[in-house]
Amino acid sequence: MKYLIKQKLLSLSDSFSIEDERGRAAYMVKGKVFSFSGSQTLFNASAQPLLKIRRKYLTLLPACRIVNNDGSEWLVRKRFWALLKSRFVVETPHGQLEMTGNFWQHEYEIRQQGQLIASISKKWFSWSDTYAVQILKPEWTAQLLAVVIVIDRLQHSDRNSGVGD
Fold first, then answer.
1. Phi, psi of 39 (to 5 degrees)
2. CA angle at residue 116 from 160 to 4, to 5 degrees?
3. CA–CA separation, 45 vs 28, rounded Å?
4. Are the CB atoms for 102 and 85 separated by under 8 Å?
5. Residue 162's pLDDT is what?
């Protein structure tokens, strides 16, 4: 399934709208305006909360937790920077995921044990951050979309003043 994640340009909090491949609203992410924790919540199209994104403090490299409604967590951590590549590791209850991408080309892949489970492409020319995401593991759709939001947040932690980074 394909999704389009668009950062809301005129928002006091760090918010995103997510459309499916038919252009219908599928999910939304809302941040809290004056939150010290900088948390965000991912909602489905019926406005039911599915998970929370929370900044993990006291870490050497930037990291965020994705907390599911059932209490399970995914941890997204930035790896040491490699020349022209962005690398992240995602610890899940189902094993470790690796996200790699080329910073200059804005193309990313999420793999588990070498198997592609999602591909992400960032649009070059748009007023706000916009990502096209193809998910090959539909049972993890909400979590994988949240991973993309986290990656955006970690890549821009120096300029996202509204999320407490």
1. -80, 155
2. 45
3. 7
4. yes
5. 39
pLDDT at 159 (0 to 100): 46
What does the buried/exposed string (b/e) look like for 100-136 if buried means 16 or more CB atoms within 10 Å of the residue's CB? bbeeeeeebebebeeeebbbbebeeeeeebbbebebe
Spatial CA neighbour of 7 closest among 148, 140, 135, 119: 148
Compute the distance between CA of residue 156 and CA of residue 53 in angstroms, rounded to an integer. 15
Single-letter residue type at 87: R
CB count, 10 Å around CB of 61? 12
Q: What is the pLDDT of residue 163?
A: 39
- pLDDT at residue 93, rounded to an integer: 96
Q: Which residue positions in the chain have pLDDT lower than 70? A: 10-13, 33-37, 59, 81-86, 103-105, 124-128, 156-165
Spatial separation of the C-alpha atoms in residues 150 and 97, rounded to whole Å: 14
Stated pTM of the model:
0.86
Structure tokens at 75: 């941890």
Burial label for 69, CB within 10 Å (0-12, 13-18, 19+), is exposed
DSSP 30: E
